[in-house]
Amino acid sequence: AAMLPFRASAAADEAINAFTGGAEVGEGGLTLTAPEIAENGNTVPIEVDAPGATAILVLAAGNPTPAVATFNFGPLAGAQMASTRIRLAGTQDVIAIAKMSDGSFVRASKEVKVTIGGCGG
Amino acid sequence: MADNVTPRVRVPRDATAGEVITIKTLISHPMESGQRKDGDGNPIPRSIINRFTCDFNGQNVIDVTLEPAISTNPYFEFQATVPESGAFTFTWYDDDGSVYEDTKEIAVS
């Protein structure tokens, strides 16, 4: 299903490295919720949830620039979770990386099929 | 320039000490991504809200970095622990240097 230009995923890898400092990224403990199909790429609801995380980075690997948002959780965060609405240029993987309180990193990703892209022309 | 930027925030009026509450925020803003072109094919410059923070009585709840991939009228839903009565402060930072603020009081019984 991967029809993304190579540079897009390279840019995403770069953003991940900038966030993790090149540390190994595991799996588990991070839930990324996104729709399987988004008719309108201009406003796609997503939610990230990683109990015990200090920060969560969200990337859209197939967008012109992959960065979407970084959530930093303070001492009064009631949970390390957040929902927002994002733009997706086309069908692609949305990626989330959580930095846990022990300094380790975990990732989750989800493919979203986009009917009408959301980056304008 | 973003015109008519209006923050809207939903916070419960009261809570019990230590309760975790859900907060929803929305701010009207075009979030011009910098990727679009006008009718003449010239790029429309980027103009977005690039940071959003929520604090309670001076302590941080969440601090978000926004990129152009955040949709028009940025929406956030998140959770906060409420240790005592006080006020939430919500702050949005615009590329053009504008800062938008809203506050909401909550009573702890």
Automatic annotation (TrEMBL), chain B:
It comes from the Bacteria. InterPro entries: Ig-like_fold, Ig_E-set, SoxZ, SoxZ_dom. Gene3D superfamilies: Immunoglobulins. Transmembrane segments: none annotated. Residues 10-103 form the Sulphur oxidation protein SoxZ domain. This is Thiosulfate oxidation carrier complex protein SoxZ. It comes from Marivivens donghaensis. The gene is soxZ.
